[in-house]
Amino acid sequence: MRPLPADPVGRFAPSPTGPLHFGSIVAAVGSYLSARHGGGRWLLRIEDVDVPRSVPGAADGILRTLERFGFEWDGPVVWQSARTPAYEEAFARLRADGRVFGCACTRKEMADSMLARDGTRRYPGTCRTGLPPGRAARAWRLRVEPGVVAFDDAVQGCAEEELAADVGDFVLLRADGLFAYQLAVVVDDAEAGVTEVVRGADLLDSTARQILLQRLLGYPTPAYAHLPVASNAAGEKLSKQTLAHAVEGVEPAGVLVDALDFLGQGPPPGLAASGLAAVWAWARQNWAMARVPHRRVVPAPRYG
Fold it and tell me: What are phi and psi of 268, to 5 degrees?
């Protein structure tokens, strides 16, 4: 497995679609400790590029929860909603290189397409060679050429994907005029100098697309570590949709110890009773990515 870099720059990038839950804290703890244990920096970005999904007040609640849990980030919080010009510039470069084309397809027209690994619809190439007569572009897609994108994940091991076959030409600029997550996250990580991306394994299947964009835009590719996703008793990922319990009003030390245990770190019995500062001190000193379970999903039913 590829080792994470020395002097790392890590980041945590929650979407403001609701309050933080245990799965969110797991991702925050893993990215934070990986960066801090290596003597590096930890950045905070609010991924509110998908404006329709953002919940009013959720971002402020996320920041308050992170502060209450003792997370300390370097530099100002970055808001994707304020970074449209950076995405426009990257999009223009890809378009000038002939890697972008307009697409007239609607969701209804795509409903019968094959499913990609992450549950999205594989694009069948309908508009790849030109728009159908009388149709106008609704969205803009990246022209994906055949070839395997492979990477070595610090937790999940070797991964690869043939994007042309598995995903097809994916959207960069949506029909509603908003830039897609895949482009925004690549631009943000590159401009922030992020050297390691430590996040949940639910995003593992997005990584090949992001690496392709990094290569096309001339950006360095960070090291990746995809942590197990926390699931409820039904095996569902903890999320707002599965009614995961928010951690806003929960005592932080106990949740942090549970997150450390979930990540295989083996915190000693009674650590939570020593208080928040003691939990963080132990965690920074003893963190080891090698102990994180090499699994995509790990149950955390009491937080479901």
Answer: -70, 150
d(CA 276, CA 253): 5
**DSSP 8-state symbol, 86:** H
Mean pLDDT, the chain, whole residue set: 95
Do strands 139-142 and 223-227 pair parallel, antiparallel, or not at all (unpaired)? unpaired
Burial of 75 (0-12, 13-18, 19+ CB in 10 A): exposed
Asked if residues 42 and 264 have their Cβ atoms less than 8 Å apart, the reply is no
Is residue 16 within 8 A of residue 54, CB to CB? The reply is: yes
Judged against a pLDDT cut of 70, whether residue 90 lies above it is answered with yes
Q: Taking residues 88-116, what's their average pLDDT?
A: 92
Confidence grade of residue 244 (pLDDT, cut at 50, 70, 90): confident
Sort residue 189 into left (φ over 0), alpha (ψ -120 to 50) or beta. Answer: alpha
Say what angle helices 207-217 and 181-192 make with each other, to 10 degrees: 60
Rounded distance between C-alpha atoms, residue 129 and residue 107, angstroms: 19
Tell me, what amino acid is at 262? F
pTM, full prediction: 0.94
